[in-house]
Amino acid sequence: MSTLAHSDAAERPIDRWFASYSGDHRNATNQRIHVFAVPAILWSVIALLWCIPSPDALFKAGVWAALPMFAAMLFYYRASRTLGLGMLAMFVALSLLTNWIAQSFGIRVLLWTAVTVFVVAWIAQFIGHKIEGKKPSFLTDLTYLLIGPAWVLAKLYRKLGWSY
After folding, report:
1. pTM for the complete prediction?
2. How far apart are CA 3 and CA 133, in angstroms?
3. pLDDT over 60 (residue 58)
């Protein structure tokens, strides 16, 4: 019975996404780069969206980041409840960090820090793929831009002995 349950679990769309993504990320150096660069890119995108001005009377700072985070969290939650909840926790933590930077140092510092992190992390990603000898997965399907953060989180889950 456990074999059947395992085989059913392997048929989940998230497992197919991860299997395909992993196929483009077999090199250990590329994987290590991704473990750091993917969360950095995720944070930088949140921070860049945070910097979009909003009418204070209608919205609080960060609304432009909150909407895509909510949509992404729904994508992850549909794929795996535990990954969805983990990504929600990540989004909350990254939002708190982003808000702290904005409140402590100002929106201009947040903007330039986010731009710098975004550029450096993407350069690292492309170096990793050069080492790997394969193009980034998102060049074949933009959905992989969402899969990357969940793939990194799933690696952490496996390391902790948690299932997703």
Report:
1. 0.87
2. 35
3. no
